[in-house]
């Protein structure tokens, strides 16, 4: 008998963290309907609570669950948990049959894990004493036969600096996403990623078949694989797109395959979508692919794309009520003209031909513009501007500019209900995709803003700030900025370069976001509020009592069969081969210029990079340079925020936040920066630089739902106080 279990998680009313639960399929109809209506669990004894984040937080004061994996036989739950905020994760394995944690299997410093042999064996990797991976982009990738886990590791390729491999297994073939150099006669940009495939037995040979995009406008970002389809995440001139290709490929004789000739289907997307993220796609046999779409004016939209029928259906869209008396605008998407991509599809996808309701956005209440700003060297910098037409005053409005520009990361411009608090007060919000980040579409955009080219990021940010002022979007004395983590370096350096350009700044460790462990295999649930954090009364208790703030919960669930034999596996069950990556990505992010927020900001880069004992120092040599090398040291010193504070200058009002247990950016960086600002700049500045230290959390803040709301309210109150004129409420 095939048992189907539903795994899901939700936040109980009045709690800050989710609980992970499961039920059998035949119990679904009644309890799931109640969850959708009331957002509550515990509807009967059939529900089994697997993990309660709230209990861990109650015991230790802080909790961050990293990886969470249910064994293929559904008997064990393996998860990693951080209880201090220093990102030192401990592996725990819970026996789901009796609810007990197995003490002898607890391991410290675990980074990743994978089940094998139908749940009889667990593989895991551990960080070293400095909590850093062995290499950053100098990577070895090994595979393990999941049916013969004692057979040892098999390396897929000789290690080459800067070359990466990401594997998927499909019916006797490995599909490999890599940036390994191609032959000279293949038209693919250097260092861009492409897909290759080979038979399992040929993994060590050079007999790989390359699958490439011929157009220079396109770059492949990621891939996912199913029994009948290959899904590619593609970027075209900074715009995210997805396409699917039917499998198996009938092209064994061709060494090089062009994607354009494989009849790709490019998913129809809304014209204003900025964020395109995969949903829960764990069923290997499925022909449907779930995607979460979002933009600054479009609430999160869950869409299922049928890759066989080449149609799509909208599963759910987050509902948010705005202050304005306006309905959500219904949009027919300005879909990609597939004629530009493939001659095999010669007509536009028509949204109305699909059996689905239309997606909606707030484009009539809030205006979202995308503009290209010319930087100091003539390069066009993408700038996204968001404002409310009803409250916008040309040349008079307050505004906030946000930037990041590091590690090739794309600036987050997805839907955020908290922004409505500022927009409804007449603020203009702008997002600068400066060089060094990922907003340019390919790896060259990152390379042109890192290492010796890092000053380009700073000039780009200043150019975008001047554009907002010179074109009347923001008043010249009412522009603020926000920089998270490495974005704090960007903002701090821009202030040193032009102290009078901004009125306020926030620099902090990391953009706060409450994410219900996206690494969960089975169920991803998000709770959203339409909250004005400034007007929320009573702190945490006030939030608990404001039931009207609970507008809707978004659910995304997946069912799984327990296979009777390995051939009937789903993607949830361990595949024949497990790729093991003996490196970790260097994770950083950023956030929101006249006021500045620096959130665990990277402000003392010179001294940090001179201390190789710190966790990320050696890894950051590839991003910013090695100060042991004279030329690179001089470059870093030229823009380091701490070393370049202008003596006697008048600096903007600043809110600088830090976390005591941050393992990525030391708390001393923010403290040193604020102390030097107070000591070096004019007397007015000494009283307008605020240092706020979180003594509980780490790089990602205090954690918890309400803790994040309180942090956001504090930051928004700072911006409103500094940037708004007395005639505004």
TrEMBL record:
Peptidase S9 prolyl oligopeptidase catalytic domain boundaries: 419-509, 600-723
GO MF annotations, alphabetized: serine-type endopeptidase activity
One GO biological process term: proteolysis
Keyword presence, Hydrolase: yes
Swiss-Prot/TrEMBL keywords: Hydrolase, Protease, Serine protease
Gene Ontology CC entries for this record: chloroplast
Enzyme class: hydrolase
Annotated Peptidase S9A N-terminal domain residues: 5-134, 140-317
UniProt family annotation: Belongs to the peptidase S9A family.
Alphabetized SUPFAM superfamilies for the sequence: alpha/beta-Hydrolases (SSF53474), Peptidase/esterase 'gauge' domain (SSF50993)
Superkingdom of the source species: Eukaryota
Its job: Serine peptidase whose precise substrate specificity remains unclear. Does not cleave peptides after a arginine or lysine residue. Regulates trans-Golgi network morphology and sorting by regulating the membrane binding of the AP-1 complex. May play a role in the regulation of synaptic vesicle exocytosis.
Name the UniProt record assigns to this protein: Prolyl endopeptidase
EC nos: 3.4.21.-
């Amino acid at each position: 008998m095939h048992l189907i279990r539903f795994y899901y998680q939700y936040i109980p009313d009045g709690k800050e963290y989710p609980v992970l639960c499961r039920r059998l399929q035949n119990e679904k109809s009644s309890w799931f309907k109640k969850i959708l209506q009331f957002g509550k669990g515990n509807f009967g004894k059939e529900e089994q609570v697997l993990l309660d984040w709230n209990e861990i937080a109650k015991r230790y004061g802080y909790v961050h669950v990293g990886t969470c994996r249910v064994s293929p036989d559904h008997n064990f739950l393996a998860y990693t948990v951080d209880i201090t905020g220093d990102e030192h994760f401990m592996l725990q394995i819970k026996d789901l049959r009796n609810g007990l944690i197995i003490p002898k299997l607890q391991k410290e410093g675990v980074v990743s894990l994978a089940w094998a042999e139908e749940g009889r064996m667990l593989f895991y990797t551990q960080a070293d004493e400095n909590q850093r991976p062995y290499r950053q982009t100098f990577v070895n990738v090994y595979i393990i036969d999941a049916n013969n886990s004692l057979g040892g590791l098999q390396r897929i390729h000789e290690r080459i600096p800067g070359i990466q491999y990401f594997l998927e297994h499909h019916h006797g073939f490995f599909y490999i996403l890599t940036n390994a150099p191609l032959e000279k006669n293949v038209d693919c940009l250097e260092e861009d990623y492409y897909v290759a495939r080979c038979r399992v037995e040929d993994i060590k040979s050079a007999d790989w078949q390359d699958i490439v995009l011929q157009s220079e406008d396109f770059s492949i970002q990621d891939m996912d694989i199913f029994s009948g389809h290959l899904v590619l995440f593609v970027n075209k001139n900074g715009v995210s797109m997805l396409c699917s290709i039917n499998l198996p490929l009938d092209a064994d004789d061709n060494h090089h395959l062009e994607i354009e000739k494989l009849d790709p289907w490019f998913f129809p997307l809304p014209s204003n979508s900025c964020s395109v993220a995969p949903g829960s796609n764990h069923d290997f046999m499925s022909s449907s692919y779930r995607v979460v779409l979002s933009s600054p004016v479009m609430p999160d939209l869950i869409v299922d794309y049928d890759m066989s029928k080449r149609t799509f259906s909208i599963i759910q869209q987050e509902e948010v009520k705005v202050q304005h008396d306006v309905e959500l605008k219904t949009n027919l998407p300005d879909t990609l003209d597939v004629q530009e991509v493939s001659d095999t599809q010669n007509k536009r996808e028509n949204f109305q031909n699909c059996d689905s309701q239309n997606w909606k956005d707030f484009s009539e209440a809030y205006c979202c513009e995308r503009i290209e700003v010319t930087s100091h060297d003539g390069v066009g910098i993408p700038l996204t501007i968001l404002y409310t037409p009803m409250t916008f005053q040309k040349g008079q409005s307050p505004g906030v500019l946000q930037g990041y520009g590091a590690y090739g990361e794309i600036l987050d411009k997805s839907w955020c209900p908290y922004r409505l608090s500022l927009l409804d007060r007449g603020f203009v919000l702008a997002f600068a995709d400066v060089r060094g980040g990922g907003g340019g579409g390919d790896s060259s955009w990152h390379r042109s803003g890192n290492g010796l080219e890092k000053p380009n990021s700073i000039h780009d940010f200043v150019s975008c700030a001047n554009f907002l002022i010179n074109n009347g979007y923001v008043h010249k004395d009412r522009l603020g900025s926000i920089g998270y983590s490495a974005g704090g370096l960007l903002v701090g350096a821009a202030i040193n370069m032009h102290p009078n350009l901004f009125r306020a700044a926030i620099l902090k460790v990391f953009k706060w976001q409450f994410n219900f462990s996206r690494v969960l295999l089975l169920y991803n649930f998000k709770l959203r509020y339409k909250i004005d954090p400034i007007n929320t009364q009573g702190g945490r208790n006030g939030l608990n009592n404001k039931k009207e703030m609970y507008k809707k919960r978004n659910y995304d669930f997946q069912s799984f069969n327990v296979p009777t034999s390995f051939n009937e596996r789903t993607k949830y069950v361990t595949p024949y081969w497990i790729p093991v990556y003996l490196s970790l990505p260097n994770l950083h992010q950023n956030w929101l210029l006249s006021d500045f927020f620096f959130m665990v900001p990277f402000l003392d880069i010179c001294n940090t990079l001179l201390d190789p004992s710190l966790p990320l120092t050696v890894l950051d040599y590839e991003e910013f340079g090695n100060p042991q090398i004279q030329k690179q040291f001089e470059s870093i010193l030229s823009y380091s925020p701490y070393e370049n504070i202008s003596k006697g200058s008048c600096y903007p009002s600043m809110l600088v936040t830090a976390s005591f247990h941050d393992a990525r950016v030391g708390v001393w960086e923010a403290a040193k920066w604020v102390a030097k600002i107070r000591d070096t700049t004019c007397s007015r500045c000494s009283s307008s630089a605020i240092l706020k230290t979180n003594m509980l959390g780490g790089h990602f803040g205090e954690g918890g739902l309400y803790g994040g709301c309180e942090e956001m309210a504090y930051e928004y109150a700072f911006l409103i106080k500094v940037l708004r004129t007395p005639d505004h409420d």
